[in-house]
Structure formats: structure tokens, C-alpha cells
């Protein structure tokens, strides 16, 4: 809008809201229309007029999703919109789903997207956090309330202006947490929370994610089990040849130990940035207990020791990244028929 | 978190101040019902270039986005800053 820069606004609707017909037109293939249609006129009145309206029948999208998406994304690729607006689809399942899928793929392709639907719409799950979704009521009566919020978000996204947090802006959380400055310091808020707790009002600023992992069952037959050594202690060959990050690691590595009975301090070290590594570097078996594991292996305490050890540096690692590391290492262990792991942490 | 757990088990109402990693916590116990968020360590923010660097081996390129935690003292769990993390 400033400096004469022209922005391109694209609006997605189903057949009904695009004025192409009701249920009898639900098998409508994707169609590209000029200018605002249906609710697009409301967006224009709210200050953001769609240049192009894309529409698709609810049934067509459901039955030919790949084809519909190929056509719609092809048009978006041509149009290079500054913002894509989907819906509002209110409580409609098929329309909401189509909005969510298009929002997700467009969002991942770098197009800012605003959609609007009920919080329980299948489109919210389908969007996977790739779009700003404004919550609405279940039917078209909620249009008047939804459009100004949609328009306000879309205008700022199209202009590259910042958008605030979910609660203050009125969109559904996308699974991200952004830093904001509170009115009060952490210490002041802590005292407030504690006084409330003592008065019986228990509140928290952080809700833990429900991903608790139950402990595995005991190993049934250790004598027949291959055991692996895994560590997050940042143990690597001297000189860190593969450049394992010392913190905030986004990789895990594995090193052969088939012919090694003990980790020599001249051959291994820890690059972990989260603890004093002096004692660990004096004897790297304190990080990866290979010497003790070999002794137990010779004493037949378990079947065999896996011929590689796994390592990463577990400090400042986002939980999502750590979970991915765990899944990848576990898959590798499964493929090698490992039945038990000694996991050393710091 | 283990300190919170033990205090709560002994009947001592406890609040902990913690940094988040994109909404995740490195550990959590069911007894930790009152937590203060001192911010999301992993939010990517613009790096600035200091005039002088003392020590350290890693540095960000100009224009590169870095995790907020890499600003020394930017997000601390001591409670003397006003940062907190909210859903977005």
C-alpha cells in the first residue's frame, strides 16, 4: 500500500460462497475468477479487496484432492500473492478441510495465509500450524464478526508487518511460543502465582506437553540380548572430526568400537558445552562406559555389545529436535537388532 | 523439577521459574503445577554484531537468525527480567 507498491490478494472459496451453486455444484472443478466474490466483497469493504478468487466444489476437492491442489497451487505460483485468504468456512467439514489443506501447502510455500473456521473444524488440524486461523461461530451469521479480524491480519501480513501473539490478535495458537515483555518481572509474577496457590487458586504459565514415555519392561533374557552404548555427553574422537556441535546440536553421530576395549583419553574427548569436561576427558569411559561393558560382555552378563556407540551433545537442544534424535537412533538400533541400551547422560 | 516435586510432597507450595524450548520443557513432574515462563530460548531472533568479542569459538554471520538463548543474559531464569513466552 505504501510507495505505490501494489499487493496481490487471493481469496479461496467453495462453490457455494463463490456463487456457483449449492450442493448440485459440489463437483465443480477448481475455477479462477476475477475480483472479489461473495464474502470477498465483505473483505473489500474491510479494506482488503481480493484481486483473484479461486473456488472449488466441496466434493470435487474431497474426491480429487491431488488434482485440485495441483491446479490451485499452480495458480498461486503464477499469481505470487502477498497474502492468501481462505474462507471463512465456519463449521463446514469438507470446505474447512479444503481450506486447511490449501492453507498448509501455500503457507509452506512461503505465502502468508489467513483462514477462518470453527476451532473444531478438520481444517485446523489439516493446516498444521502453517496459517493464521481466526476462530468463528458455526454458521454464516458469524461472518460480520470474523471478516474484520481476517482483514486486519491479512493486511499486515501482506505488507510484511509484524503480527502479535495469538490471544491479543484473536487467532488460534499455531503451536509456537513467542517471547513478549510482560508488565511485571518473572520474580513479581512468581510471587503472585505463589500467593494465589496458597489461597487455593493454582495457575501456571507453562502447560507441559503430554508426551510422557512409560519405562520399558525389563529385558527378558539378557544373555541373548545385544546391548548398545548411547550418550548425550558429547563424546567424540579427539579433534571432533565430524564437528559435532558443542550445544544446540542438530545431529547425532555413531562411531565404531568393534575393536576397542576402552576409550583412551588420547583418542576420545567430550565437546559438550554444558558441563566441566575435565574429569570426563581424563577418562572418557566415564562418558561411555566401554571398559565396564567389555568386562561384563566377557563375563557373559549379556549377549554381545553393539559394534558402534551413538553420541550427541544434549545441551540447549529443543525438545522436538531431541525427540527426533531419539526416534532416529532407536530406528537404527532396531535395524541392528539391539535389545537394550545403556544411556549415559550428564 | 525434582526439587519442586520433593517440596510439594512435603507440603511446601512451590513456584518454579523456567525457560521453555519452543513450549517444551526439558523435564516436568506432575507436582509442578505453578510455573513461570521466563521466555522461549529457541525463538529465532536477529543477531547483532558486537564491536568486540572476548573469547568463544562460535559466532553468527551478519543477518543470520540465532536462538534467543545465545544472547548472554537475554533470557534468564532468575526472574529479574520481564520476558515470557505466549502462544502464537
Reconstruct the topology from this structure.
The complex is a heterodimer of chains A (346) and B (88).
Chain A: E1 9-14, E2 31-34, H1 39-45, E3 52-56, H2 58-63, H3 65-79, E4 83-90, H4 93-108, E5 113-117, H5 122-127, E6 132-135, H6 143-158, H7 166-169, E7 177-181, H8 186-198, E8 226-231, E9 235-237, E10 253-256, E11 268-270, H9 278-282, H10 290-298, E12 304-311, H11 319-335, E13 340-344
Parallel strand pairs in A: 1-3, 1-4, 4-5, 5-6, 8-12, 8-13
Antiparallel strand pairs in A: 2-3, 9-11, 10-12
Helix pairs in contact in A: 3-4
Chain B: H1 2-9, E1 16-20, E2 35-40, E3 44-46, E4 65-67, E5 83-87
Parallel strand pairs in B: 1-2
Antiparallel strand pairs in B: 3-4
What does this structure look like?
The complex is a heterodimer of chains A (346) and B (88). With 346 residues, chain A is α/β, with parallel strands linked by helices. Chain A has 2 domains: 161 residues, 3-Layer(aba) Sandwich (Rossmann fold); 123 residues, no CATH class. Chain A has 11 helices and 13 strands. In chain A, the strands form 3 sheets. Chain A has a 6-stranded mixed beta sheet, sandwiched between helices. In chain A, β5, α5 and β6 form a beta-alpha-beta unit. Chain A is elongated, with a radius of gyration of 28 Å. The mean pLDDT of chain A is 95. Chain B is 9% helix and 25% strand. Chain B contains 1 helix and 5 strands, in the order αβββββ. Chain B has a two-stranded parallel sheet. The two termini of chain B are 26 Å apart. With 88 residues, chain B is mainly beta. The chains are: A alpha/beta (346), B mainly beta (88). At the A-B interface, β7 and α8 of A face β1, β2 and β5 of B. β7 of chain A pairs antiparallel with β5 of chain B, so a sheet runs across the interface.
